[in-house]
Amino acid sequence: MALSSSMNMMVFPCLLVAAFMQAPALFAQDFDPVFVDFITRATKAMDAGHYEESRQLLHKADSVTPNTAIVSYEFGYSFMLQGKPDSALPYYATAYRHAQATDQFYSAYASALDDRGRSDEAKTIYDEGIGRFPASFILRHERGVWHARRQEHHKAVDDFQAALERKPDFAPSFLRCAQSQFAIGSNTFWGLIEAEIFMNLEPHSERSKNLASEMVDVYKKNIVFSDKGVFVTFSADAALDADGTTRIHKKSRHAQPYGLGGFEVPMMYSANRFKELNAKTLLMTRIGFHILYERLKVDSTYGQNPLFDYWARVKEAGFEVPYHLWVFRGVYPELILEFALNNPGRLAAFEEWQKQNPIVITKDRPFLRNRYD
Fold it and tell me: What is the pLDDT of residues 48-83, one digit of tens each?
């Protein structure tokens, strides 16, 4: 889109044994309390690094209630923690085939296979697990990671979206989906939205802070200034020529795909006020984007976007500038320092407000791409 200057692994922790034991629908038997005690003590021992002790306790559990899936799984997990994946694989193989198996058993086995270079076998296990547990979000996510590692980013995005359909607030799928979209290099507006949702779901992690540099790169690649005006290219679904003609490349139930009408149009007109993209103009472009997003009633056309709903809450609370500074805290520390010196206490007040007012992503309020086009 152009505007002329005149017109415009995943790694799983040990199973929570108590929760596992309290799922009678998974089993045709109740577990002996002595068995539960041995399993609980075994998991505590392996978490403390006492692997031989944990396996002795697992053997005792097996003698009380033989041939359970959880004992096989925990044997495998103890070897993985000890750094002996080859010893873990036979136990994982037994666990995932068991009638008591869960989707986590498939994921653990596939991840271990992939780590040992047996990638094709891992993919087969993911596929089988999804067939057995179609509601599993974790298997979809892990298969997406498998695809992403092989640069199969379109397939990865499909799996991450499927994971989010099943668990709408699963932060790792937002992160991975954004990064795969950035790697694809087109329709990066989806990735920007998903990356920022991830930041808000995981606000204090280092990977959230570090993600800002990837976002800035995307903004810089897709907002380009020239003597003819500003060119905005976040969406490959449509383009707006300098004469105002719209060329649609993707079918949508709306007059314009979301990437154009819901993102590029307000972004383009906001950016057109400036001659370059730097720390301050990026901040002001985002703020202006949201003003136009609301004036254009984008939500009325395409449906509510939980990220931009959150922007509205932030603005209403009086923290619009601190919020946008926070998003890019890993890239523009000097701008944050300047703001802090001129506005004592505002950043701390925002961070306190943020703790009490997290973004809302639920089954009733998800962010799924297929809802917008």
Answer: 999 999 999 999 999 999 999 999 999 999 999 999
Contacts with 177 (C-beta within 8 Å, 6 or more apart), sequence order:
144, 156, 157, 160, 161, 164, 190, 191, 194
Residue 12, pLDDT > 50, answer: no
Residue 12 DSSP class: P
Q: Which long-range contacts (CB under 8 A, 24 or more apart) does 36-40 make?
A: 38/64, 39/70, 39/71, 39/74
The dihedrals phi and psi of 5, each to the nearest 5 degrees, come to -60, -20
Distance CA 355, CA 280 (A): 26
Is the full-model pTM beyond 0.85? yes
Q: 2-4 and 229-232: which strand pairing?
A: antiparallel
Token pair of 197 as six digits: 């949702």
Contact status, residue 11 vs residue 242, Cβ threshold 8 Å: no
Query: What is the three-class DSSP state of 240?
Result: strand
List Cβ neighbours of 153 (8 Å cut-off, separation of 6 or more): 147, 180, 181, 183, 184
Q: How many whole angstroms from its chain centre is CA 78?
A: 28
Q: How many CA atoms lie within 13 A of 138 on its CB side?
A: 16
